[in-house]
Amino acid sequence: MKKYVIALDEGTTSVRAGVYDVEKGMFIHRAQQDVGQSFPRSGWVEQDANEIYYKSMYVLNDCVQAAGAENVAGIGIANQRETVVFWNRDTGEPVCPAIVWQCRRTGKFCESIEAPMRKKIKEKTGLLPDAYFSASKIKWNLDNIPEARKLMGEGKLCAGTVESFIVFRLTGRFLSDYTNASRTMLFDIKKLCWDKELCEFFGIPLGILPQPVACDGDFGSVRFGGKQIPITGVLGDQQAALFGQACYREGDGKITYGTGLFMLFHTGDKCISSDSGLLTTIAYTLNGKTSYALEGSAFNAGSAVQWLRDGIGLIQTSGESEELACSVSDSGGISFVPAFTGLGAPHWNSEARALLTGISRGTTKAHIVRAVLESIAFSARDLAECMIRDSGICLREIKCDGGASANSFLMQFQADTLGIPVDRPQERESTLLGASLLSAVSLGLLRSDEIETRRVSEKIFKPSPNRKKFDDLYNSYLFAVKRALMTE
Fold first, then answer.
1. What CA–CA distance (Å, rounded) separates 186 from 331?
2. HEC letters along 128-168
3. CA-to-CA distance for 306 and 200, rounded, in angstroms?
4. Rounded-to-integer distance, Cα 142 and Cα 329, Å
5. Half-sphere exposure of residue 85: CA atoms within 13 angstroms, side-chain side
6. What is the pLDDT, as a whole number, of residue 66?
7. Which residues pair with 422 in a beta bridge?
8. How far apart are CA 300 and CA 304, in angstroms?
């Protein structure tokens, strides 16, 4: 009998699933469905939770049919984090639109949180008070959705992140894994439980929240083709990518280049608090052990390349950016700051805006394109230097994934500016791979000491020995950042 696991990735703009052959160490089938978003007001972002669920069922059914239910040992789940779903405990039906992690409707409330409580939030959850996280979204629904308050009074309201909603609809069990719980701003990441004081501050009854469980725990089972298939190996998408990239030891790090840039740095069993505006988060739990990570994000990465293509028409395809960047020897004195929606860590300034400096009569579109790609790498260096400083742990190399990791110019420049190797894998779907591997280990199909061999490098980009050149370019970028911060 073949041993397959199916990974389900609940992304922000699509749901994907893949059939992973544990014996061969590869995906043999994949399915994807796009998921819509709505923007009812400026800064608001919503989704239809039922659309997420039904399209998840579509890709799961597709994968089960491709694999044969009798061959599927289990299902792992990764998901967009922080997005909040409210649903009826009796029917499983959503009460209102899901509030997506990108939504800023609660920004003013989060800014109004006073210093003593801000300090408690950081100490307990590892997070900085921000509309990005789930707590203020839950509070907003309770304050503004009459049906939610009615169901809460009847003991029928469930509030959770996307994986919690999907698991409930599939199995009837009301659970959340530790990594997603750690992104709510309500979860004590050291005690591994909901924090009563924080829940009271946000006005959130503990009874509407799911039971937190370990990532490799039992999440119930779902019937396909007459067979009950267990669900285990559940974690947030960035943590799944960390796991899929074989970042299992202290000092391992990964960067996901998507619309934004997400960097996670494994700190082992050390729950390290950042003095640089980084987040402390649970990386994953495995065999009763909790691992932690520092996390930083840049709001714009792939979106900057999209701007070159769709906004100002300098390129026709994203892939063309690599060819243009390589056509010139440098950026011609151009520096670009990708702050279309502000700057994330370590600056945390939502008012800063994108800036292009150093334009001369000799500037060409190739110079601008190259400067935009370089800015993505410099954003990552910002985060890496903070992580090393805060943790005192050496960063040995970076493993990369996401759409922009296909750009070899960017990956080489990333290695050059960081001064460490950048390792690009053969399997770019690190999120799906991470959920697959964690599920396989949880089911006993793989030993934990075998999983590192399942990640295969495609290419390792080695850094240039000319450190001064890249330090000078980085310092020019930092000067441009200072100017961008003055535009508020």
1. 45
2. CCCCCCHHHHHHHHHHHCHHHHHHHHCCCEEEECHHHHHHH
3. 42
4. 56
5. 30
6. 94
7. 398, 461
8. 6
What is the Cα–Cα distance from 130 to 344, expressed in whole angstroms?
11
Total length of the chain:
488
User: How far is the C-alpha of 394 from the C-alpha of 227, rounded, in Å?
Assistant: 47
Distance CA 180, CA 166 (A): 13
Taking the CB of residue 65, how many other CB atoms lie within 10 A of it?
14
Q: What angle do CA 333, 338, 340 make, to 5 degrees?
A: 135
CA atoms within 13 A on the CB side of 4: 23
The two structure tokens encoding residue 275 = 């003095």
If the chain, 488 residues long, is cut into consecutive pieces of 10 residues, what is the mean pLDDT of each piece? Answer: 87 90 92 90 89 96 93 94 95 94 87 94 93 94 95 95 96 96 96 96 96 95 90 94 91 88 91 89 93 88 84 86 91 88 76 84 92 93 92 90 90 95 90 94 88 88 91 90 75
Our CA angle for 276, 123, 478, nearest 5°, is: 10
Cα–Cα distances (Å) from 481 to 37, 301, 306, 335, in that order, read 31, 15, 21, 9
For residue 467, which amino acid is it?
A: R
Tokens of 400: 């990369």
Token pair, residue 398, equals: 């970076």
